[in-house]
Amino acid sequence: MSLEEVMRLSQEVAMREYLERSKYIYSTLEERLKAVDAKQGDPIFIRIFKKESLLEVWIRKDEKYVHLKDYTICAYSGRLGPKLKEGDRQAPEGFYRVYPKQLNPHSKFHLAFNLGYPNAYDRAHKRNGSYLMVHGNCVSVGCYAMTDEKIEEIYGLVESALKNEQKYVPVHIFPFKMEEETMAEYSHYRWYDFWMKLKEGYDYFEAEEVPPYVDVINGEYIISEARE
Predict the structure, then answer these.
(1) 67 is an active site residue
(2) Coiled-coil regions in this chain (predicted)?
């Protein structure tokens, strides 16, 4: 195979990958719901990736969750690593749950839902802070801020799922997509051991296509088989 043919094939593969990724961002929510044969109100799962400034929404189809839609995060504050204390301007990382009482349709940031920080793990490690949210208005001091248009879709999916008897919406927040090569790049960081525990939850979902059940025992995240 000639160099020109290799380059052409590489470009074709790159284009296919780009088109595959971009459909989750540029297709409308209605188009994506139709494409995966799902409806608003079906159970959902959210993953957030700091480095990529990306919020993914997955929706349950039969016994698995399928990739529904991606939303670019408009703003978040701080750097890679968990939130430790009130006022550090860090956006949290970890495993969180959104219950109906955490929805705020009257937020001054258009619409918002509270992530539930600090969770049991955070409290066990004496981390503190309050009002850590996903919201609109595209401004952040420790939250994950979206445009108003995007938060309307995300909030609508969360609210509909909770009203349709999903007990809580899991929100798993990672510093980055936790592939082996990326983990190796960050192996010298102070949060590497913490991130390796988060990776257990990431890997479970990647393999099983359902969110794991996450508990906190003796101050550590415990990842176990999904429960409905």
Answers:
(1) no
(2) none
